[in-house]
Amino acid sequence: MTGTVIFDPLIPLFVVYVLAALAVLAVALAIWRRLPGWWLRGLAGLALLAAMANPSLQQEDRAPLSDIVMVVVDESASQRIADRPDQNEAALANVTQQLNRQPNTEMRIVTLGDAPGDQGTALMSALSQALAEEPQGRVAGIILITDGRVHDMENAPALPAPLHVLLTGEPDDWDRRLVVSNAPAFAILGETFNLTLRIEDQGAAPPTESVDLSISIDGDTPMILPVPVGRDIELPVQLSHAGMNVLQFTVPDAEGELTNRNNSAVVQINGVRDRLRVLLVSGEPHPGERTWRNLLKSDAAVDLVHFTILRPPDKQDGVPVNELSLIAFPTRELFLEKIDEFDLIIFDRYRRRGILPNAYLDNIRNYVEQGGAVLVSSGPEYGGAESIYRSPLAAILPGAPTARVFEEGFVPQITDLGARHPVTAGLDALSPPAAEGDGPGWGRWFRLVDVNVPPAASVVMSGMDDRPLLALDRVGEGRVALMASDHSWLWDRGYEGGGPQLELLRRLAHWMMREPELEEEALSVTPTGQQMRIIRRTLEDEAADVTITHPDGTETIVPLTEISPGRFEAVWDAPEIGLYRLDDGTETAVIALGPAAPREFEQTIATGDVLAPLVDSTRGGVMPISAGAVDIRAVRDGRLAAGRGWIGITPREAFQTADIKISPLVPAWLFLLLAALFSIGAWLREGRR
């Protein structure tokens, strides 16, 4: 119980001030008139004013409040390497033991992990929020258990008490880091660009001249190169395929380094083709010839070379050569010298008429086996004696003609395999269902060349009596396709409702040119924040579970669910950002959620330099945990709060008022009596004159 003297006026305070002013004037008048009792008059006025001011004794019933010490424990990713988790635990136990010895003191523990979105360690934001939840007048000290790598110093709050840092790490810590800079978002296939790499050693690293750098593209077998340490390296790179290319750079783990989480870097570069060069060779003119030309010319990224063979060499009609308007067909230049410059060769109703010798056709076969693509759109000539099949191309074409050509109406159908193949999957959804029976409501075609398809080829569309209509195959490094009809143009003209002719031919051409989204066997991943959508395309009826390898080496097995024929998916929430590897036993994929080496691992050597200015401003201290336990002492506010082996807190002596009692210090009648006595005394004194 404590007491203080206060004034509790009986009348409004401003009235008291007015009366006080009048009393001063009255005393001044008495002095001016030389009245001998002026001082008694002044005492009488003072007694009256005191009675109206009502001096009182205020007594408070106070309950003392404990002091609060904030302890912030950094459990971000950089605090989970080496023996730092044990250091965190030991330091927290030490602080708890010391604070338990301090009278009237309690502890508030705040833990924080990685900030979302690769923002690193947001320690100051966590401290600000914790301080906002506590009365500032009770905070006696703040202790941070951290490696000192704080990434939000701009959010540092005003501190009401000394700040101390208990620093994890060891004096001989060192780490190696791989950094990739100036990586483009996309690059043109076949063109060389440079990536800048740098391998940095931090801390007390042993002297090293060079290390082995592993370079892997899309998870393939890595290439090993020796590279120097501490210098920028210009690395020339060429992308191998269109679409997303994942380049992974890794340096081996070194004995004694803190972590290997920053030994890898992943660069995701979208490969684009500068121009897709297509050679279209048309035989005799027919209504579908313009379909191919319009399709390829409508794509601005396609560079089309188109020849229509209207006049074979054996034609003798007496027309002088100088009067012919047709240009010579540069067969040697195209099929021997520049064939490798084309991404796709299309033979549209081409028949052997002496234009291309067997040596040229054999060169086309070599072109396919080495990675080229050939598409044959056949008509009745494919089943005859002049068929392109009766040439060296027979070794690669996915259909042998039986010499039968059916000239009757049929509705093209997607086979069971075609429902799973990306070239034809979902095509039936682009047209209304058939008015009668099953299948899509497509218009009919009226010609089908009968072919025998080898077991290795994939028949994705069929005609009458389930005979092959569209067959696809891979030969060596290349791809071939055979369309056993020349009537796809009927869909383009809208005959009997038409059909998805443009989409079919577009997909077919892009599959031939290895567009990643049309690969029939592929494992891909689409990231959204820390969530990934795993997509597996396959021609099989089932898809194996996917094994996901985390950045720290742990594994998670994720089952896939069939979403549509040939397409299996799963959505998985990753526990942290970093580099993930996916493998289902057949296909592999690599994906980086955020950077492969997050911000937490850019600098891993513990340091007090970042927090030092804030610590110094509160006269606190930075204490390495490796130096041993610390003592906690009570120090007065404003004094030095840290020394060798000890840190200080400032007791706040805060309290809570439970009750207040106010009682008059002197009864009002006593002031009135005094005023009367002083007034009578002044009258008697002045009456003697």
Can you tag this structure with a few keywords?
elongated, five-stranded parallel beta sheet, single chain, alpha/beta, 689 residues, 11 helices, eight-stranded mixed beta sheet
Structure in words:
The mean pLDDT is 85. This protein is an alpha/beta fold and 689 residues long. It has eleven helices and 37 strands. The strands form nine sheets. Strands 16-15-17-18-24-23-22-20 form an eight-stranded mixed beta sheet. Strands 4-3-5-6-33 form a five-stranded parallel beta sheet, with helices on both faces. The chain has a five-stranded mixed beta sheet with strand order 8-14-13-10-11, with no helix packed on it. Strand 35 and strand 36 form a beta hairpin. Helix 1 packs antiparallel against helix 2 (38-53). Helices cover 19% and strands 33% of the residues. The longest helix has 20 residues, at 13-32.
Brief digest:
This protein is α/β, with parallel strands linked by helices.
What general form does the structure show? Answer: elongated
Sheet with most strands:
8 strands, mixed
What structural class results from the helix and strand content? alpha/beta
End-to-end gap? 55 Å
Counting copies of identical and different chains, the oligomeric state is single chain
* Distinct helical segment count: 11
What share of the residues does DSSP label as strand, in percent?
Answer: 25-35%
DSSP strand count: 37
Rg, alpha carbons: 45 Å
Arithmetic mean pLDDT = 85
